Amino acid sequence: MTLERFLSHAVSSWMSEEGPDSEIVLSSRIRLARNSRHHPFPTVFSAEEAVDVASVVKKSMEQIGESLEKLEMDELQGLQKRVLVEKHLISPNLAEDSTAAAVWLSDQEDISIMVNEEDHLRIQCLYPGLQLKEALEKANQIDDALEAHLDYAFDEQLGYLTTCPTNVGTGLRASVMMHLPGLMMTHQMNRIIPAIGQFGLVVRGIYGEGSEALGNIFQISNQITLGKSEEDIVEDLLRVVHQIIAQEKAAREALVQTSGIQLEDRVFRSYGILRYSRVIESKEAAKCLSDVRLGIDLGYIKDVPRSILNELMILTQPGFLQQYAGGFLRPFERDLRRAALIRERLEMDDLQDKGGTNL
């Protein structure tokens, strides 16, 4: 039962659900940056002031009508914090030794409110598929409830004041996580990325700024927060995302038409590696998972649910592997564990399909 229990908590509930355009868009995220008018910003506040901010936020959180659990960063072990980063529930910045830092999480883990990160508050809502408007509506609901009890740092001309000047205005960061193997295989991403920048958007890797696009997964988000409303920012992002979805679908169709048997071979070779390898590095695992996910979307593989691929993308990250193992693992040991975990997870799914019972 240990493995099952670990797997049942490994992936947030929202991630196991399907959403609009979920064959290409894995998730939608809205994040709002907010600060208290009566406290210095986190880059300059003292330890006592940080504790006071956390206390004020706690009192406000208890009055907004959301069922959220508070996790104190200084009470978590390094691996536990790394797992939260890998699940996109906290930022790497919050996982560092920040004074009086905490996160408030919903049971579904679709709501994450970070305290004393780069700003006093980072309100984050995560939804499956392409649901930016729904995520924005929920984030605004929480924001309004908190603002009824907190005096935000706000300027009539500039808008919400934030630690980083690039967030001043709405304080909004809207982003979508997209799986784009077709555009990568047809070598179109190098052309698309600069074009996206002309619309005030930025393309990053799976874990945001400075991270790699492992497994052909990219985050696309707004850069401009000043001079536009939250709704306009989301609409601009949606227009570009819809175009990228159309281009990715066209690229997949072209690959099937021109390289069908080679593409099918690539998919099943990757599936074989995942099913039978004994040692697998993170980059190879991400590449194979991307291929298999594409194979599922194209109908080549019919007996593997897409949700398993979502799980394995998270489960094969270093933090999860080490938490599952119960302690620090050297790189080669992680590669062994990664391969074993993937095999076990796929074998468990086979048992379920055949009406058997899981171990």
From TrEMBL:
<feature type="binding site">
    <location>
        <position position="88"/>
    </location>
    <ligand>
        <name>ATP</name>
    </ligand>
</feature>
<dbReference type="GO" id="GO:1990424">
    <property type="term" value="F:protein arginine kinase activity"/>
</dbReference>
<feature type="binding site">
    <location>
        <begin position="27"/>
        <end position="31"/>
    </location>
    <ligand>
        <name>ATP</name>
    </ligand>
</feature>
<keyword id="KW-0808">Transferase</keyword>
<dbReference type="Pfam" id="PF00217">
    <property type="entry name" value="ATP-gua_Ptrans"/>
</dbReference>
<comment type="similarity">
    <text>Belongs to the ATP:guanido phosphotransferase family.</text>
</comment>
<comment type="function">
    <text>Catalyzes the specific phosphorylation of arginine residues in proteins.</text>
</comment>
<feature type="domain" description="Phosphagen kinase C-terminal">
    <location>
        <begin position="24"/>
        <end position="251"/>
    </location>
</feature>
<protein>
    <recommendedName>
        <fullName>Protein-arginine kinase</fullName>
        <ecNumber>2.7.14.1</ecNumber>
    </recommendedName>
</protein>
<dbReference type="GO" id="GO:0005615">
    <property type="term" value="C:extracellular space"/>
</dbReference>
<dbReference type="GO" id="GO:0005524">
    <property type="term" value="F:ATP binding"/>
</dbReference>
<dbReference type="InterPro" id="IPR022414">
    <property type="entry name" value="ATP-guanido_PTrfase_cat"/>
</dbReference>
<dbReference type="InterPro" id="IPR023660">
    <property type="entry name" value="Arg_Kinase"/>
</dbReference>
<dbReference type="InterPro" id="IPR014746">
    <property type="entry name" value="Gln_synth/guanido_kin_cat_dom"/>
</dbReference>
<feature type="binding site">
    <location>
        <begin position="173"/>
        <end position="177"/>
    </location>
    <ligand>
        <name>ATP</name>
    </ligand>
</feature>
<dbReference type="InterPro" id="IPR022415">
    <property type="entry name" value="ATP-guanido_PTrfase_AS"/>
</dbReference>
<feature type="binding site">
    <location>
        <begin position="204"/>
        <end position="209"/>
    </location>
    <ligand>
        <name>ATP</name>
    </ligand>
</feature>
<dbReference type="GO" id="GO:0004111">
    <property type="term" value="F:creatine kinase activity"/>
</dbReference>
<keyword id="KW-0021">Allosteric enzyme</keyword>
<dbReference type="GO" id="GO:0046314">
    <property type="term" value="P:phosphocreatine biosynthetic process"/>
</dbReference>
<keyword id="KW-0547">Nucleotide-binding</keyword>
<keyword id="KW-0067">ATP-binding</keyword>
<feature type="binding site">
    <location>
        <position position="122"/>
    </location>
    <ligand>
        <name>ATP</name>
    </ligand>
</feature>
<keyword id="KW-0418">Kinase</keyword>
<dbReference type="InterPro" id="IPR000749">
    <property type="entry name" value="ATP-guanido_PTrfase"/>
</dbReference>
<feature type="short sequence motif" description="RDXXRA motif of the pArg binding pocket involved in allosteric regulation">
    <location>
        <begin position="334"/>
        <end position="339"/>
    </location>
</feature>
